[in-house]
Structure formats: C-alpha cells, structure tokens
Design goal:
This protein is mainly beta. Strands 13, 14, 16, 19 and 20 form a 5-stranded antiparallel sheet that branches. The chain has a 5-stranded antiparallel sheet with strand order 17-18-15-21-22, with no helix packed on it. Strands 23, 24, 27, 28 and 32 form a 5-stranded antiparallel sheet that branches. The chain is built from 3 helices and 34 strands. The chain is 8% helix and 35% strand. The relative contact order is 0.10.
Length: 532
C-alpha cells in the first residue's frame, strides 16, 4: 500500500478561489479540488494474477471521504514469450514484398491461447495491404499454418510483408497471444491478452545498382545498368524509370543484352496500383543472369535522352524495380541519382569497330571513334575500358595509333598509357596550363590491338571516360567529366580450328563437353601454332 499526505492547493493554481478563501478563513486547507482530474504516477511490479486497485481518500481527521471500492482493474502481467523475426532474403529491399521467418515460443507458465497477432514496425504492412505510416499494422498468424510446437522448440511461420521506404528508427516487432473466451449464456466473445514478446527486426537495403551514361543536353545516349538480385527472389521483370523530363527507351537494331528482351512499359488502370504513374519506363524481361553465390547478376543497355536544360539540384532520381511473375516488387532502389549534367559538352555517342570479324581467343585491331560536335574545354585524358575477359595486346607503344592528327596528344610525356591490360589511356596536351587546353570539334579515331575473350562476358559493353587530369583511372570520380558506354553486341566467332574440331563431334557430346572442351581445344590450337 502507498499512503500519500497532500499539501494545500496553491492559490495561483486554484480553479475555485472562493472556496479556497473560505477554507482558509475556517482554518482549513483544500488538498484536492472537486471537478479536477489528478494523475498519480508510480512504478509498480505487475502480478501474473488478476488484481484490482483500491483507492481512498481521508480528511484531516482521518475519516474516509471517498473511495473506488476496489473496483478498478489493475494492469495484469503476462508471461514473456520468445520471438525472433528474420528476413528470408539476406538483403531486404525497400517497398518490396519479402518473406519473413517468425519463430514464437510460449513463456513459462503461460496458459492456452487461440490467437497470435504480430504487430509490425511502422511502414511495414501485410503483403497486398496499403502501409500506414502513423500506426503499427497487425498481421494475424494462422496457427494451423505454423510448423513445430510453440511450447517445445517454438512454432515457425513464414509470412509475406511489404517493407517500408527506409529503415525505421524503431525496428521492433511485437507478438501477442490472445485467449478467446465465450460467455456460455450471452455467447459474447472476449479477447484477453495472455502473453507477449518483442524483438529487434531488420532494416532495408536498396538493390545494388550501377547506372552509367553521359548526360548530354537533348542528345540520345547509351545507359549501362548493372544489378544483382537474390536468386530466391524469382526475378522475372525489371522496370527502369527515368527522372522527370528524361526519356528512357529500348535500343533499336541491337538487343538490350544477350538473352534479355525489352519493350516500353505502358502503365494503365489494369496495372497494380504500385505500378501506375511511373513516367518514362522501360520493361526488361529477365530471362537469364549469371549466378554468383546466392545472387543473379544482370547487365542491360538502354537509350536515354536528357532534357536540353535543367537545374542539376532539381533533377528527380531514377527508380528501379524488379518484379516476379505475379508483378510483386521483390527488389528495388527508388532514389538513384543522375550523373552530373554536362551542359558544356556536345558530342555524339562514341563507336566501336573491328578491323575484321572478331574471333574468340584471337587478336584483332579495334577502332574507337569519338565525335565532338563543338570544342571541348579542359579535357586532359580519354580512357578506354575493356569488358571483362578482354585485354589489349599492345606490345609496343606504336601499336596505339592516333588516326586524326588534329587531336592534341600530349607533348611533354608519352601520350599512350597501357600498363593495365583492360585500360588504354590517351593523354591530351595540357602544356598551356590553367585548364586552357581545348580539343577542337571533329571526329577522332584511335586504334590498338585487342585479345578477344574466350567466352562472352556478363557485360560486353566498353566504356569511354573523359577526364580533366591524367589520373583518369575510374569510371566515376571528381576528375571525371563523364563516362559513356559503348555497346558491343557483335558476338565473336569461334576460331576456325575450333569450328572444324567441333564439326566431327555429336551434338550430345558437345553438350557434355561445354565450355571446358572449347577452352581446351583453343589452348591446343594456339600452342600448336607456336611450335617451330
């Protein structure tokens, strides 16, 4: 029991100054005024048994003046259960459907219950239900669908939920066990909480997306998109939505990527609500990807047209969604920033050509052509990045040729750098200093020998990087003016010796040999050519 001795009401806080004055004249004091609400806060240890609060008040002479007769129901304690919540996918993405593994075990001495309810963190919602940002949504767990025994090792449930746009400050999940009581006479149903638990949940991580293109005013450019999706997500489609004022489209004349199909996405009233009003969007069917660990890797090449002018800080982000065959979003990144807008550069897409039809595992001369429509200021270096599995075959610096002699190559140092087998760098003349170097408008071509990969890379795209200094080693960075992808869907032919060797092998045997046999035959062919 707690006994409190109250002082008198302060005059400045009184709601009835007249009564307070009369009491003072009579030599008494008023501890609690009628018609006012009072709040008493105390720390108590709740009991597992039912209990009630008994509250009474006494006057100054010790006589009872008021009471609740012990009819106020006290807060009852419930056995603490065991709860764990884990995402089935290792990287839960934002605003996507994910399956969660929920394990529930009853507490010590807990009575039988009929319902289990899961209170989701803010922003989470049962799959198919619109999320609420101001309240926790409740997911009813079907006890018949759970595996195991909640009183022994625990009962496990697998349930689909929709994730929020970002990780919550309060990531806790709650579970409550409810006993359902039915009055035998009135048949009135009463739900009583008889157990609970909480656990820290998980946050969301956007899809790892690489998006590279040259942002030129009102000019079509290639955009290279690379991403990975968990294999368990069963990805079927990818929706790529460009920022406002941008236009993204499927390439014409070439494929979006080997094995992938692209078409423009048309949003209409028949589409799910979360796929409406997306703006300019390309839809790519994900027929194939390269499996690495638990993830499937994909690369795409699309076309994008930027507006003629705009303010960089007001550019809306790209959004990217991966859907399964039921059109559920299973992976996403909704705030991918655009590369810096290059209003001072006006050029066409660089092109790639071969001196002859490329053959896998053979050397061929490659020509990289750059088209400047008007002069370019502060350009110090151009770096050509080769695809995975390709490497240059430059034995002497004279094998790197500058076809248009009007291009201002470096004078005080060698203008060719090729130490890295997957990069060839062309250095410009910057002897004037102070960033005054200028490359005049024109068409410029550079040639060098390249060893073609033995097997097709995941991404056959080449990249051309334009930089303001000689470092120019990466696709992005403070010294990078822009990086432009160059599509390369001209599939290399097999060497003639390999073709002849495979002609005498049955189709079933070829299937068994696969790429390993192809590599061995190529290796034997090349070694025989080197013998004196």
């Amino acid at each position: 029991a707690v006994r409190l001795t109250l002082g008198g009401v302060a005059a400045e806080l009184s709601k009835n100054p007249t009564a307070l004055s009369e009491a003072k004249e009579a030599g008494k004091r008023i501890a609690m005024e009628s018609g006012r609400n009072y709040r008493l806060r105390v720390w108590m240890r709740p009991s597992l048994a039912k209990a009630t609060w008994h509250i009474s008040s006494e006057d100054a002479d010790g006589y009872a003046s008021n009471t609740n007769d012990g009819l106020t129901q006290a807060l009852q304690a419930y056995p603490e259960m065991s709860l764990s919540v884990q995402s089935v996918v290792p990287r839960p993405p934002p605003i996507s459907k994910v399956f969660v593994r929920i394990a529930v075990k009853t507490g010590e001495g807990q009575s039988v219950f009929q319902k289990l309810q899961l209170l989701l963190p803010y922003g989470f919602a049962p799959a198919g239900v619109a999320a609420q940002t101001s309240t926790r949504m409740i997911l009813e767990l079907d006890r018949d669908a759970g595996q195991g025994d909640e009183t022994d090792e625990g009962q496990v449930f697998i349930a689909p939920v929709t994730t929020p746009a970002e990780t919550n400050l309060d990531p806790r999940w709650f579970v409550i066990a409810i006993r359902v009581d039915v009055d035998e006479l009135t048949r009135e149903v009463t739900d009583t909480v008889i157990g609970w638990s909480s656990t820290a949940g998980f946050g969301v991580t956007p899809c790892p997306l690489e998006l590279i293109y040259g942002t030129l005013p009102a000019s079509p450019a290639w955009v290279q998109i690379a991403f990975s999706v968990p294999e368990t997500a069963n990805a079927a489609f990818a929706l790529i939505t460009a920022p406002a004022l941008y236009e993204v489209s499927c390439p014409t004349g070439i494929g979006v990527s080997p094995g992938l199909v692209c078409w423009e996405f048309q949003s209409n009233d028949d589409a799910p609500k979360h796929l409406r009003n997306l703006g300019s969007t390309a839809n790519v069917t994900l027929n194939s990807g390269r499996l690495e660990g638990d993830n499937l890797f994909y690369t795409l090449i699309l076309q994008v047209v930027a507006p003629e002018t705009f303010e960089q800080e007001k550019v809306s982000p790209w959004s990217f969604r991966v859907l399964d065959r039921d059109l559920w979003v299973v992976d996403s990144v909704l705030d991918k920033e655009s590369p810096p807008f290059q209003s001072d550069i006006e050029m066409k897409n660089p092109t790639l050509s071969y001196s002859s039809k490329p053959q896998a595992g053979e050397v061929v001369t490659v020509a990289i052509t750059v088209y400047f429509i008007r002069r370019v200021k502060k350009l110090a270096a151009i770096t050509v990045h080769l695809p995975e599995g390709y490497r240059h075959d430059i034995q002497h610096k004279n094998q790197v040729r500058n076809i248009n002699k009007r291009f201002p190559v470096a004078i005080e140092t060698d203008w060719r750098e090729f130490v890295n087998f997957r990069k060839v760098k062309i250095l410009c003349d910057v002897s004037g200093g102070g960033g005054t170097n200028v490359v005049a408008a024109g068409t410029y071509k550079f040639e060098f020998p390249v060893m073609i990969a033995l097997k097709p890379p995941l991404s056959p795209t080449w990249f051309i990087t334009f930089c303001t200094d000689y470092a120019c080693a990466n696709l992005e960075g403070p010294n990078v003016m822009m990086t432009m992808p160059v599509p390369n869907f001209d599939a290399p032919l097999l060497p003639r010796s390999v073709e002849q060797g495979l002609q005498g092998v049955g189709s079933a045997w070829q299937a068994r040999l696969g790429l390993a046999t192809l590599a061995v035959v190529v290796a034997l062919s090349r070694s025989s050519q080197l013998q004196p």
